[in-house]
Amino acid sequence: MRQIFLDTETTGLSAENGDRIIEIGCVELLGRKLTGSNKHFYLNPERDSHEDALKVHGISNEFLRDKPKFAAIADELLAYLQGAEVIIHNAPFDISFLNKELELIGREPITRSIAKVTDSLMMAKELFPGKRNSLDALCDRLDVDNSGRTLHGALLDAELLADVYINLTRGQNSLVMEEGSSSQEGGSTVLIDLRQFDLPLLCANEQELAAHEVLLADIDKSSKGKTVWRALADA
Fold first, then answer.
1. What is the DSSP string of 183-194?
2. Superfamily for 3-172?
3. What is the pTM of this model?
4. Is 152 a catalytic residue?
């Protein structure tokens, strides 16, 4: 499945209170490899950014005056995202803004066009409970170079998120083997770097996918419909 890492910049923090999207950045990953097939849009939000938001993204109101409105790029964006798994850091925030933009032009929610939404922030919280899990913090923890990030930018943040995700899900990248018996003198340890090999990507078969869906349904039933994936699917 195609994976798209998506980030937005906005005029403020609340889509319901009238804030709008000013920038969208998307980066494509296929078979855990970046394809270079990215999307990037600046948008005219038809309103000014809040002062605090300007300090975060640094995109001036004047710069956005002649940019296209969301309606003009909606078809291109939806076609690009069609059928993909979309990975977003703090997904409910970006999804709420995308859904509001689509609602304003009479279109269905974004979840109708894509296969699934994955929240990388939730993934990070499960792996690193009790720690800071902002994108900057994860870059530091996972050795992702973010030295070029002085302000937030949607495309740059989507690219950083792709690198963070790859490192977050890379699993084992080395293999330690003992040569000779552990009780035998002169035994040695060999470290094999698995990153030098082009390891195959093994996809789940139909039986495994069906078993996975049954497991998710059982968890959803046990939580009385309060699972994260249900909340995202209904967003």
1. TSTT-EEEEEEG
2. Ribonuclease H-like superfamily/Ribonuclease H (3.30.420.10)
3. 0.73
4. yes
